[in-house]
């Protein structure tokens, strides 16, 4: 049987083939069962060390990676920026080399700058897993989104997926666009003109459309993916007020009615209720936001297993 | 004649009929020893133990008029050789949907050789609860001298004394379009 994945580092969806993506997803499917056991632990990565190196705040992703490592019996160490030497002036590469000298098997890294995991992969002996780098990629998020879609739609190929909101700053959008188009879905993006890069239609080839308004993107969609308004990245005036954003771009029941009757709603979290997504939508049965979080642990178990298991 | 892996075919030790008879006998022995299907839990070890376990469970149902509990174990995550087998053996799903607490579990595999697979299966089983007892049924036992752990089978289809250079292949229609058991030899290189 073909190995699902034979790379050491897990840096992004962009470089992966459709076969590799499916291989990782299938592996993740088989880890799900462990998370519903009474004893949620297998001895697979006993003696391996995973360092979660987070230069950016994160509760969900960091907890998810930590649980994934622990459920595989790896030792997980969390480093967040406030407690690291970076604040004392150490360069990124020096930080990586110092951690490397302690011989971890895997470093999970999140950073506000694109390309940091790729840079670390060049100097580190440990496997590097990208947990989000700037506006570039968030590959495990795209995988857990894909798992949620597959679970509810049975497939990805041929689906129409609307991705709405702040595309410009969104690594979630980039990873998802790569993944979904590679697996044969059509992706339609829309949002405030200031937050939707026009040149996006060139960057993955076919399967991507930029829509003039969110309603155009939602119409007939099988999946509606809402992005978070990243207030912390709003360094200039992209739209007048949050209230205005909510009126023109927020996902309400009324807008969702334009999608297919059985359309599902995804959001990578944390949600800004009443801004990009109305509470009535977030709390409806079409919203699978908590499923996404649940599947995230299985996806990260699979990624850690593939990055550190065996050879 | 060498096959695609360069193995030399030596002899066929069981055909489909003999396999069926052996599995029927194992099924009878299991119900006799466990006094029926009450609390009996047949668990196949992936991959080739699963169709064999299904056959045994079907035979037991036929004999007793009632089906035993059935489950599947994938031992990949419990292997002790993850760092030596090369990157990432494929992980498949474990399906133990019924509680194993207090049950009489019979693990089923195709070949008993070093005993390491069974060790992994036992460890995994214990993570699911405390069975009343665990037994082992195998179609082929390659002989005690190969064992690397103190593990023996309770129900054996056929004992086949083998050399270390030999390989036993259990062909099943689910995977190979035929049912038979063969001995192969690794060519001396």
What is the total domain count of chain B? Answer: 1
User: Largest interface, per-chain counts?
Assistant: A-B, 25 and 24 residues
Unreliable stretches of chain B: none
Strand/helix succession of chain B: EHEHEEHEEEHE
**Beta strands of chain A, count:** 9
As a whole number of angstroms, the C-alpha radius of gyration of chain A is 19 Å
Describe the strand arrangement of the main beta sheet of chain B, using strand numbers: 3-2-4-5-6
Fraction in beta strands of chain A: 5-15%
**Global shape of chain B:** globular
Under CATH, the topology of the largest domain in chain A is which?
Answer: Rossmann fold
Q: Say how many strands of chain B there are.
A: 8
Give, in order, the helices and strands of chain A: HEHEHEHEHEHEHEHEHHEHH
SS field, number of helical segments of chain B: 4
Instruction: Report how far apart the termini of chain B are.
Output: 16 Å
Oligomer kind: heterodimer
CATH topology of chain B: Rossmann fold
Radius of gyration of chain B, CA atoms, in whole angstroms:
17 Å
**In whole angstroms, how far apart are the ends of chain A?**
17 Å
- Please state the overall shape of chain A, judged from the principal axes of the Cα atoms: globular
CATH architecture of the largest domain in chain A: 3-Layer(aba) Sandwich
Q: What integer is the average pLDDT of chain B?
A: 91
Could you describe the 3D structure shown?
The complex is a heterodimer of chains A (311) and B (189). Helices cover 37% and strands 14% of the residues of chain A. Chain A has 311 residues and is of the alpha/beta class. Chain A folds into 2 domains: 18-136 and 294-308, Rossmann fold (3-Layer(aba) Sandwich), CATH 3.40.50.1370; 139-292, Rossmann fold (3-Layer(aba) Sandwich), CATH 3.40.50.1370. In chain A, the strands form 2 sheets. A 5-stranded parallel sheet of chain A has the order 7-6-5-8-9. The radius of gyration of chain A is 19 Å and the shape is globular. Chain B is of the alpha/beta class and 189 residues long. Chain B has one domain (8-185): 3-Layer(aba) Sandwich (Rossmann fold). Helix content of chain B is 26%, strand content 28%. Chain B has a 5-stranded parallel sheet. Chain B has a 3-stranded antiparallel sheet with strand order 1-8-7. In chain B, helix 2 (49-64) links the parallel strand 2 and strand 3 (69-73). The longest helix of chain B is centred in the first third of the chain and has 18 residues, at 16-33. The radius of gyration of chain B is 17 Å and the shape is globular. Chain B starts with 7 loop residues before the first strand and ends with a strand. The mean pLDDT of chain B is 91. Chains A and B meet through helix 1 and helix 12 of A and loops of B.
């Amino acid at each position: 049987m073909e190995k699902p994945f034979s790379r050491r580092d897990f840096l992004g969806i962009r470089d992966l083939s459709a076969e590799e993506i499916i291989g990782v997803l299938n592996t993740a499917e088989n880890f799900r069962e462990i998370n519903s056991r009474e004893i949620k632990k297998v001895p697979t990565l006993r003696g391996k060390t995973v360092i979660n190196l987070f230069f950016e705040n994160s509760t969900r992703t960091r907890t998810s990676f930590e649980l994934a490592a622990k459920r595989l019996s790896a030792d997980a160490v969390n480093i967040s920026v406030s407690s690291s030497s970076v604040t004392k002036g150490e360069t990124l590469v020096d930080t990586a080399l110092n951690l490397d000298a302690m011989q971890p098997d895997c470093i999970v890294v999140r950073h506000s700058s694109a390309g940091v995991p790729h840079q670390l992969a060049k100097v580190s002996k440990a496997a590097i897993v990208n947990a989000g780098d700037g506006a570039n990629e968030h590959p495990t998020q795209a995988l857990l989104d894909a798992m949620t879609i597959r679970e509810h739609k049975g497939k990805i190929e041929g689906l129409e997926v609307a991705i709405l909101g702040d595309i410009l700053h969104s690594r979630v959008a980039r990873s998802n666009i790569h993944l979904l188009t590679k697996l044969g879905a059509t992706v339609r993006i829309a949002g405030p003109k200031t937050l939707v890069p026009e040149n996006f239609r060139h960057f993955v080839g076919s399967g991507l459309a930029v829509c003039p308004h969110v309603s155009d993107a939602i119409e007939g969609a099988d999946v509606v993916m809402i992005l978070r308004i990243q207030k912390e990245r709003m360094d200039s005036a992209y739209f007048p007020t949050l209230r205005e954003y909510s009126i023109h771009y927020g996902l309400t029941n009324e807008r969702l009615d334009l999608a297919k009757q059985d359309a599902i709603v995804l959001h990578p979290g944390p949600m800004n209720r009443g801004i990009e997504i109305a509470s009535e939508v977030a709390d409806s049965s079409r919203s699978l936001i908590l499923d996404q979080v649940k599947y995230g642990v299985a996806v990260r178990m699979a990624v850690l297993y593939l990055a550190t298991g065996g050879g | 004649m060498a096959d695609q892996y360069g193995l030399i075919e030596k002899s066929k030790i069981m055909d489909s009929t003999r396999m069926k008879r052996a599995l029927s006998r194992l099924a009878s022995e299991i119900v006799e020893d466990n006094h029926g299907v009450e609390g009996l839990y047949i668990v196949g070890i992936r991959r080739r133990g699963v169709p064999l376990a299904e056959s045994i469970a079907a035979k037991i149902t036929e004999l007793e008029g009632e089906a035993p509990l059935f489950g599947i174990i994938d031992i990949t995550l419990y292997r002790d050789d993850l760092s030596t087998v090369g990157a990432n053996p494929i992980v498949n799903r474990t399906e133990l949907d019924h509680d194993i607490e207090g049950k009489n579990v019979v693990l089923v595999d195709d070949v008993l050789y070093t005993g390491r697979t069974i060790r992994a299966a036992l460890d995994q089983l214990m993570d699911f609860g405390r069975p009343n007892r665990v037994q082992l049924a195998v179609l082929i036992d390659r002989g005690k001298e190969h064992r690397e752990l103190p593990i023996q089978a309770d129900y054996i289809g056929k004992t086949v004394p083998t050399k270390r250079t030999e390989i036993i292949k259990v062909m099943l229609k689910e995977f190979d379009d035929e049912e038979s058991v063969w001995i192969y030899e690794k060519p001396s290189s």
